[in-house]
Amino acid sequence: MANRATPIFEAQEQALAYRDLKVLVTGADGFIGSHLVELLVKEGAKVTALACYNSFDAYGWLDDLPGALRDELVLRRGDVRDPAFMRSVMRGQDTVFHLAALIAIPHSYVAAQSYVETNVIGTLNVLEAARDFGVRRMIHTSTSEVYGSAQTMPITEEHPLQGQSPYSASKIGADMMAEAFARSFELPVAILRPFNTFGPRQSERAVIPSVLRQMLDPACETIEVGDTSTVRDFTFVGDTARAFLALGMAPAISFGQPYNAGNGSAVSVGELLDIATELTGCSKPVRHAPARMRPDKSEVRALLADSSRLTASTGWRPATNLQEGLLHTIAWWRDRLGRSLIRKQSGFMI
């Protein structure tokens, strides 16, 4: 497992380095994946974007990208659980960003096996294919959920791992598999561990899009929330995407090791509600909904990132604070809800 000096890698060098590089992004159809793909194309990479196969002729959030940018992609549908498919899509790639995963924590309580199959076995298939075809670097996506409730804050990469949900347990397993491939086979794989990422295109499984949609949607009379006492480090998706690019190209990182990527500032969900209320001008009442609560022993009480290892190794720092990120996200939701209303009105008139 590599353990090297860590000079800062300047953004200009990074942009030049990605030009014409062949890059595979798994989970490209998802929230963070689509933003990462967009950034890679803008930096000149030749991107193969892998979306989970479906019968709707859809590529997830990639379908929302501007047409000219989408035309630059090689679009593939498949499943990381299929080792033969992963070998076929891995051939000829220089760099791999592995984001494909099942991520909805509530569903993991009722379908734990599917999380193991996708998140652990799927990651194994990606690692095996990357090893077989000699990729120059692979970045595996972890999550701050692997830390469970913080025992010390801010959380460094040395914090104990705690499987407080089947989802987090499956991601711990995937992280350990990535570490094992670095140690056992000298695979150049590093682990990026984003904290709570938010921004445009995020599904309502997460608290920020759920709250904002309810605040802005005229069809909602109240705002339903779960536990508002939990504390989170919310990081804007543009900063998370830049963290992937930084780790994917920095010349001296430690393979097999995790790197936290967080904003370094934590707020409670209750405080988040107050900020969002002020930014949206919403006056709807807030209602606590039991269905939005996690089991008591499974709830992660607090997360706050120490990202100094990533900063020291790559020069990455978050550029967008919570309020700025919320304003971007509110604008996206206003536009999305407005277009939805127009479609409904058009259908009514027809």
Give an overview of the whole structure.
With 350 residues, the protein is of the alpha/beta class. Helix 6 packs parallel to helix 7. Strand 5 (137-141), helix 7 and strand 6 (189-194) form a beta-alpha-beta unit. The strands form four sheets. A seven-stranded parallel β-sheet has the order 3-2-1-4-5-6-11, with helices on both faces. Strands 7-10 form a two-stranded parallel ribbon. Strands 8-13 form a two-stranded parallel ribbon. It is globular, with a radius of gyration of 20 Å. The chain has helices spanning 11-18, 31-42, 67-70, 83-90, 105-108, 112-132, 166-185, 207-216, 237-249, 269-280, 308-314, 322-349; strands at 22-26, 46-52, 74-78, 95-98, 137-141, 189-194, 197-198, 223-225, 231-233, 235-236, 258-261, 266-268, 286-288. The longest helix is centred in the C-terminal third of the chain and has 28 residues, at 322-349. It has a domain at 11-199 and 236-264 and 304-319: Rossmann fold (3-Layer(aba) Sandwich), CATH 3.40.50.
